[in-house]
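#onboarding

Welcome to the new folks! Below is a worked example of what a typical request in this channel looks like: someone posts a single protein sequence, and someone else replies with the predicted structure as tokens. Don't worry about understanding the tokens yet, we'll cover that in week two.

Example request:
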Amino acid sequence: MDEQVLRSLVKWPNVRDCYGWLALDRRGQWRMRDEFTQQHHLLGQVIVHQALKEFISRNYARDSHGRFFFQNGPQRVFITLDATPWVVRIIPSDQGTQLLTQCQNSLEPTAALSDENGNIYIVGKVTQTIYEDSDRGKFSIQASESVALLHDHDLDLFSELASLREEACSFGGSWNWHGKQLPLDPIHSSELATRFHYIAKPSA
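Example response:
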């Protein structure tokens, strides 16, 4: 969380929260959603300004209710999630491959899930900013379990790491990550938010 953002919360503690105007899509892109977009259930305009994307990512947080938001100075902008709070890519590095979220923080995987539409979700620990509900200006940084949708461009790469078996409505099996065999289990997409304690469409 940016220091200037924390200072603005102290200076203007009673700014109203904002809902519906910012979304995270299935490819990890931030999207602006004006009134027309919201009324017609459209995706919204992709934010391409690099500095703005980085500002959102640095000030991305969650509260104890499982609502994710962008702390835009003194205003809290709750985020509509097309899928999960995180979208992850498989990225080569000097230390081998790593999993990076849309905020460029690392996810340490413990498992994967496959849904009825062939989507892959990575389960693991990610360092995230947590809002303490008892104090509007207080945030903590914690490494905690969450779930991330794997970017569709990386599905072929994931399949090379996986040993699959067919389940009733999806796939199960295992996958290899840095020499470890991790489980791959089926899940229905409707179960994700409840299982991982997040709210996809926060409302006032």
